[in-house]
């Protein structure tokens, strides 16, 4: 990515110098090392108090006893929890480093578009995690508990429980990126806002399919909740795109 430096002389001439490609590669390498270091730092901090994180993850469900299938299962699970927590909390810093790397090569118009989209993407991902934690996870787990009530005693493997909610967390966070994708597609004139509005029937169909694919559980309530959220996100993205275009 070229970074330009302008030098003004007395005769009003302008000389533009472009950094060599190797220097951009070196800058990118340094920023990647910095991001990896921050991720490791947050991972270590999360591992120090990982028991609080485990209790936080167990809050959406009650009356369930967790166990480990092997001696090291819980230990491996806590490492996973610490890593994904570190990844989550370091993501704003990673996006900041990406912005600092891209900024010199962007025009003012591109900067006005890309920076708000990156920040909005991060906010939407956080909202997706919150929606999953407070709505989807309790709905899915309570469905399974009520279904097996008076027949089976709920004894769940903690590692399998963590993988279940992890998939639900990140699939919902990715689904919440739909408005960002819509705005990018609309600004690039690949699909117009009117075409997006005219495809509402297909949106309902696709949202139903995505709700079934992205949710690790098979209960209809969780799938319907996610499908409804996808439709609302699509409508929100369409409304924002109309405002930008007009």
From TrEMBL:
HAMAP family: TatC
Top-level taxonomic group: Eukaryota
Record-stated family: Belongs to the TatC family.
Protein name as it appears in the record: Sec-independent protein translocase component TatC
Matches recorded under PANTHER family: SEC-INDEPENDENT PROTEIN TRANSLOCASE PROTEIN TATC, SEC-INDEPENDENT PROTEIN TRANSLOCASE PROTEIN TATC, CHLOROPLASTIC-RELATED
Membrane-related topology note: Multi-pass membrane protein
Biological process terms in GO annotation: intracellular protein transmembrane transport; protein transport by the Tat complex
One Gene Ontology term, aspect cellular component: TAT protein transport complex
Gene name of this polypeptide: tatC
Record keywords: Chloroplast, Membrane, Plastid, Transmembrane, Transmembrane helix
GO MF terms, alphabetically ordered: proton motive force dependent protein transmembrane transporter activity
InterPro entries assigned: Sec-indep_translocase_CS, TatC
Transmembrane parts of this sequence: 32-54, 74-103, 115-141, 161-187, 199-218, 224-244
Subcellular location: Membrane
Biological source species: Fragilariopsis cylindrus
